[in-house]
Write a structure and sequence with these properties.
Blueprint: E1 2-6, H1 14-25, E2 30-34, H2 40-50, E3 55-60, H3 62-72, E4 78-83, H4 89-94, H5 102-111, E5 114-122, E6 125-127, E7 130-134, H6 135-150, H7 154-165, E8 169-175, E9 178-190, E10 212-218, H8 222-233, E11 243-248, E12 250-254, E13 258-263, E14 266-271, E15 274-286
Parallel strand pairs: 1-2, 1-3, 3-4
Antiparallel strand pairs: 5-6, 5-15, 7-9, 7-13, 8-9, 8-12, 9-10, 10-11, 12-15, 13-14
Helix pairs in contact: 2-3, 6-7, 7-8
Length: 287
Amino acid sequence: MTYFIVNPTAGGGRAAARIAEIKSNMTGEFRILTTNAPMDAKTFAEQAICEGAKKVVAVGGDGTVQEIVSGIVGADCTFGVLPCGSGNDFIKSVGISANLSTAGYLDIIRGGGIRKIDLIKLNGFCFANIGSIGIDAQIVNVAQKLKKNLRGGSYVAAALYCTMTCGPTRMKIVVDGVEYNRDFTLAAVCNGWVYGGGFKIAPSAKNDDGYITLCLIDGMSKPAMTALFPSVMSAKHVSLKEVHFINCKNVEINFEGGQLVNLDGNLYEMCGPLKYEIMPAALEVLL
């Protein structure tokens, strides 16, 4: 049995429009479950596993993917994507085309190959692409409010706004036992290499190498931050002295009070410590 979990609001309603196409093009036994609120996708994924699902498919964006992988991690099933989000960065990281028709994606779901990729675990959650804290989470927060009108351009507009209004965050970060304690503009815990609809934050990251690629960006002035984000679009930030990359297995991040934490475009209010851990070959992806 194949379960399709649809976030009807994804992509300005494009995901909801795919339901009729799924029904007319899909063969074999399948069910369609439609979310109504945050965390419904995770709950439905857990339900699908309890009911013996062999394939679970996200019909939505990267946030829908994040919830579903948190619900199916450790289960004996494969995972598919019918991308309908504003960024769809997960499919870029795994190598699925962004230009297929619904029928083309369903062909993959019915009979595609399988690739095992890593996941990253954080305090009971899992994510497949990139988690972050700092200015990045503030950008996601603003971008979510702009999506209705700007869709794919919401992250860029939010980045421009936040670089002019947000400052660095004091963090103590422990990476495989090595401590870094200072102000950071951003800490991005990467499994994939791209997020935010095209920001190439960790160009060297591989989601099947058994390692987290941690990107740390030191505290920067507002003018420097304004210049930073265009350079991330072209991956030129990798040469900046304030930008550091570390391949690791575990990351712990501590900070004062509560902070917004970004997991593949979903925001969670969390208090430290944040404990990230790589989960090698934890997800079988249809592609």
